[in-house]
Amino acid sequence: MGRSETNAMKRKRKSEVKPISNGTPDVTAKSPAVVDTSKPTAIFQPSKGRDWTVSVALPGSIISNCQTHELRTSMAGHVARALAVFCVDEVIVFSDGNSKNPAKRHHNRTHSYAHQTDPSQNEYTGDKDPDHFLFHLLNYLETPAHLRRLLFPMHPNLRTAGTLPSIDLPHHLRPDEWCPYREGVTLAGADENGTFVEAGLRIPVTVEQQIPEKNRVTLKFEPGAEEASKDATAEVIRAEAVNPADPREESGYYWGYNVRKAGCLSDVFTECTYDGGYDITIGTSERGIDVEELYSGDEEQKVGNFKHLLIVFGGVAGLEVAVKNDGELQKLGVVEAKDVFDRWVNVCPGQGSRTIRTEEAIWIGLMGLRRLVVNNE
Fold it and tell me: Could you tell me where the Polar residues compositional bias lies (predicted)?
């Protein structure tokens, strides 16, 4: 562009500035609104209740691939962040028989006992039982910060968990934030008048039910509770203990993920806590079909609406080793891993690296399968 053209453009821009009454240019007439970028604006907003769920299963053996405690903790943090960002409702940690200690231990998260761990696991398990270590860390990170000291005693597994970035779930509420639901922990002293629950507000919440102490509960506040929480003279904030699925099913909130532990791959399916089990199951592998075929391929590969979607990721040796080491699947004569699932998918075709680590595959896979979730809404 020549000098004459540049000068012409400058003159044009000056001529477009509208003068005000005193003859000076109005440089503020169309100033855009200032956005405070120091605070997050992508806050989850529920639209309507939903009864469908998204579950992810992965082997605890991925922890065995980490050489230090810090790397194991970081690995769990990466997994938890992915689950939170993509609104996963359930995560299952299963044994693929490829870890150093593939002992079976079953832990199911329930309404009130989500925080409790195996009493025999009071020592560090990152190098001995990676399944338990990942299960423990994922449970800890999902719990609101103000409840962790009440639910999780000091443990070697958690010694550096405080250095991980927060996953900042919708139920990780600040004291000055209000939501019709909230997570809490029951306190001692339940009687015929009810139970006090620590929920991170200025005073404990009162529920009519009598619940043993140190149990995690989901609260639904009664009318007037918000006003009482802000009124320094109010002595009672009332709520009721409800099912942990109520915030999602009734109001559409994403309310964190449940954590479940399975002794082998087949237990992921047989111990499913949803009525009717998973209606769509997807196994991930570099030997699967292109993920795009789920959307634009033939009708046989396309995925329609679902009630309970399960996405399974393999460890270092893939899902094939999990099938090979699963006694129940071997009894059924299963030879190929792809036969276990409704779809066998490659979430990153044409990858440049020879390998994709499981913690990377979770991010890539959940993004590639995001359209299934969006189309299901």
Answer: 113-124
